[in-house]
Specification:
- A 5-stranded antiparallel sheet has the order 2-1-5-4-3. It has a 5-stranded mixed sheet with strand order 7-8-6-9-10, sandwiched between helices.
- It is elongated.
- It is an alpha+beta fold.
- The chain is built from 11 helices and 10 strands.
């Protein structure tokens, strides 16, 4: 009787371990499958069906289901990989192939499996495997291959041109390098003011943000008051001259590490690293005062409204910018005003 109890306890222990293994596999993989060679049955997890868009447990639990859903072009290589494992030439079955989803489209999967049970004669009777969705990874790899092939093709063409006309190609390369440098500068720079444009400002701020440089800092949004009246009354050319004068007006008050960019239209944005709320408000007041005292072309007098937000721990970039924009909205109600967070 004691021996029977021991066997029962060991059986329960093994079942518990199997459940634990299944849970672990569900966590690390989108789909688990379990093939019994003796019965021909293939059990698949609910997540396996969900990954492919099928109703859970809606497909026949056979090997044929697997074979029918593999893309025809990937079938030979997949079968060859399985045969290498069955022949003992590989430590496990591993293959990448396209698999048909419920909507008829194909998705790239990584399939890995091993035998986990054997009969008394040592013959394998059960295989456990996992499917992993690698569709985006494969697409990225393909794009990279195409890009690399494109670069290699360009390189071969350049080498051929060097052989044919060395001097002419050298001149062309110099012109191309100049054009590329200009294109890069234009991609980062606002054409009118020479400041960083909105896109490049976002990129720079994101780089600082996700390098963990979330030390005390602040975002300041500046909007020129009644600027539309300048364009309407004196023309867009005069308005452009005013905008071009803004960087030279603001920069003397800024440190080298401060980022100033044109946010769009008559709006400008500042990122002030290592700056708390009080310091950001003081700086904004200086800028407001400087702007109010300035005289632009044709004796134009302008003021500005400022919204100031402080970067808090755990903030996302857009959250801080949105809070600064909310403050700017409140400042615009009175104009020529600095408003910080409440």
């Amino acid at each position: 009787m004691a021996e029977d109890n021991g066997e029962q306890q060991e059986l329960e222990r093994l079942r518990s371990l199997e459940k634990t293994l299944q849970l672990a596999l569900d966590i690390v993989s989108e789909g688990i499958w379990d093939w019994n060679r003796l019965t021909g049955t293939v059990k698949r997890s609910a997540r396996w069906y969900q990954m492919l868009g099928y109703e859970p447990f809606s497909l026949p639990e056979t090997v044929d289901t697997w074979l029918e859903l593999i893309h025809p072009d990937d079938h030979p290589a997949t079968m060859a990989a399985m045969q290498r494992y069955l022949d003992g030439e590989a430590p496990l079955f591993s293959a990448r192939y396209r698999f048909k989803k419920a909507d008829g489209d194909y998705i790239w999967l990584q399939d890995k499996a091993k035998f986990v049970e054997f009969d008394a004669a040592g013959e394998p009777v059960r295989m456990l495997g996992a499917h992993q969705d690698i569709h985006h990874q494969v697409q990225a790899e393909e794009e990279q291959r195409q890009h690399q092939a494109h670069l290699e093709r360009l390189n071969r063409e350049l080498e051929q041109k060097v052989q044919e006309r060395t001097r002419a190609l050298a001149d062309a390369n110099a012109a191309l390098a100049q054009q590329l440098a200009l294109s890069r500068e234009q991609a980062c720079t606002d054409y009118l003011t020479g400041l960083f444009n909105r896109r490049h400002f976002d990129q720079l701020l994101t780089q600082h943000w996700y390098r963990g440089e979330q030390r005390p800092s602040a975002i300041v949004l500046l909007d020129l008051d009644y600027f539309k009246a300048v364009n309407d009354r004196l023309g867009h050319h005069t308005g452009d001259l005013v905008l071009q004068a803004i960087p030279a007006l603001l920069r003397p008050h800024l440190r080298h590490q401060d980022l100033l960019a044109r946010w769009g239209g008559e709006e400008f944005i500042l990122w002030l690293p290592d700056t708390d709320g009080a310091a950001a408000l003081r700086l904004s007041e200086r800028l407001r005062h400087t702007l109010a005292e300035a005289r632009f072309c044709r004796d134009i007098h302008l003021t500005g409204s400022f919204g100031v937000a402080v970067c808090r721990p755990g903030d996302q970039i857009q959250q801080v910018i949105q809070r600064a924009d909310d403050c700017l909205y409140r400042a615009k109600r009175e104009r020529n005003k600095v408003v910080g967070e409440r």
